[in-house]
Amino acid sequence: MTGARRAWLRLLAVQGTWNYERLLGVGMGYAAEPLLDDLKTVDPVRHTEAVVRSAEFFNCNPNLAGLALGATVRAEYDGVPGGQIARLRTALCSPLGAMGDLLFWAGLLPLLLGAALIGVVLGARWWAVLGFLALYNVARVVTGTWALRTGLEAGMEVGAAIGRSWVPGAIERVGPAAGLSIGAAIPLVASWYLVDIGWPAAFGAVAVAATGVAVTRWFGASLTTVRFALLALVLLVLFRWVLP
Amino acid sequence: MTDLSPASALLLVAWGTIVALDLVSVPQAMVARPVVAGAVAGWLAGDVEAGLRMGVLFELFALDVLPVGAVRYPDYGPATVAAVALAADSPWQFALGLSAALGLALAVLGGFTLQMVRRANARAIQHHSAALAAGESGAIRRLQYGSLARDAARGAGLTAVGVGCAWLLADPLSRLDRSTALGLTLVALGCGLSAVIGGALRSAGRGPRLHWLGAGALIGLLAAALR
Fold this sequence. Notes:
The complex is a heterodimer. Chain A is mainly α.
């Protein structure tokens, strides 16, 4: 089987055709194309069926999509019945989504962003921004490479391979680290802005922050923080207009 | 707002396009994060300090978003670029509030345009359903490239509108009385802090992560006091 490098590159755009019908499906089909090329010469009918399956509904965290891609492509080459491959694909959606989201969106990303914000505030500026980009992308490239390779090696046994891997342990460790990082960043960022403005005014900002936390928790999804912010800014302008 | 040359404005629009593409479509290298988008936009506009100040503020809002599943969220990347264009070359204490208002409105608009692109992608898939059912790889490629082009056009249009609005708001910003400008900045900062605190508490839940969040906050407070 050839084309793994091209497939890896195409996985960077796995969400390129994101939509509410097939979600990542078409992006997965696009990434699968180079891997399925060899099947065209061996078994053209199977190749056509595999291409159809590769672009059907799929959803997971993009950084772990390589596991599903590799596993389903390997299963196509192994001659596994189509229905079984479709079931594997469906079965992988939720665990790969949950694990990838916990590892990246709720773990590594806030961990590194918290560190980057602390770095900017403490004067590292560009170094903090570049350090964030470098660390995140190294982690992501290593994970993506591992995911595609593991999927291609494991095929239908990919679930067991994930269970034995480093991913579950990393999720347990990265969450608390992210909490620590964001927790430390918040007071430092606040002081970075507010010290220059003066403490009396800073109390006003802190009061707005406390109100925002309380109100957005109370109203839930109907009053997001962005809506609250826009409302507060408009109210301030109106207040200043009425009482100049 | 700095007197942006047409070349600088074009560079900002190009950067906003890259940033918009990076959010979901390709390559998700995190240049769409406001702290990155803002720093580079500040450099392009000739005021890195303004870029970092806006970028960090919008990062506080963006940290409230957990982009899981089919959740809908604002697009903070082009919004940060436009807000930096407005805030550049002005004292940040007075420019941050109005620039944040522009950026937040643009972020909401960006979220709507993201839904429009997703619906357009779904329509394109329906249009190519016969080719997909026949296993035509060419149809998959055409869909992919078409969707990327749509998202790029979205990002370019959004950033161009934002930079245009920044140009229009530059004069009102310079004439805004200082107490109102400072008030807007404080409200924007307070709202940014409420966003990041709310998001952090939600992510922490009631488990051990909440204790780590609290420990981090204590360390941060101590470090802030010692600075």
